[in-house]
């Protein structure tokens, strides 16, 4: 059975669009990043749990939900902690994470 060129072109373009969407969805995860919600507030409480991911949230506009600077530590169990960058213990924790190969990535803002 013969298919018209415009129908074939349309199918190919649809398939390519679908592939691009799938690849872009996995791109951030392949780079070690995933969507993390902003921290509305921070704490200086010590995090003793095993941290597997670290993100840096930069202060955005004052009317924005992400209006504060924070370090976001994610544990292996998936718990998320919003840490005050001025917490006394944080510098040592970040050094330990770096030695384990965990580096703090910038927080990706949803588009």
* DSSP E strands, number: 4
Low-confidence stretches: 15-31
Structural class: alpha+beta
For the largest beta-sheet, the strand count, sense and barrel status come to: 4 strands, mixed
Q: What is the strand arrangement across the widest sheet?
A: 3-2-1-4
The portion of residues forming beta strands comes to 15-25%
Radius of gyration over all CA atoms, rounded: 20 Å
The pLDDT mean sits at 77
Ends apart, CA distance between termini: 44 Å
Helix content: 25-40%
> Helical region count?
2
N-to-C order of helices and strands: HEEEHE
The geometry reads as extended
What do these coordinates show?
Helices cover 32% and strands 18% of the residues. The protein has 111 residues and is of the alpha+beta class. It has a four-stranded mixed beta sheet. Residues 15-31 have low confidence and may be disordered.
């Amino acid at each position: 059975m013969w298919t018209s060129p415009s129908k074939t072109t349309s199918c190919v373009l649809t398939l390519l669009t679908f592939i691009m969407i799938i690849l872009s969805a996995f791109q951030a995860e392949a780079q070690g990043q995933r969507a993390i919600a902003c921290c509305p507030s921070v704490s200086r409480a010590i995090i003793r749990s095993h941290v597997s991911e670290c993100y840096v949230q930069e202060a955005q506009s004052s009317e924005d939900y992400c209006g504060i600077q924070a370090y976001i530590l994610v544990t292996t169990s998936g718990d998320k902690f919003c840490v005050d960058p001025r917490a006394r213990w944080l510098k040592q924790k970040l050094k330990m994470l770096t030695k384990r190969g965990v580096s703090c990535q910038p927080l990706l803002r949803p588009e």
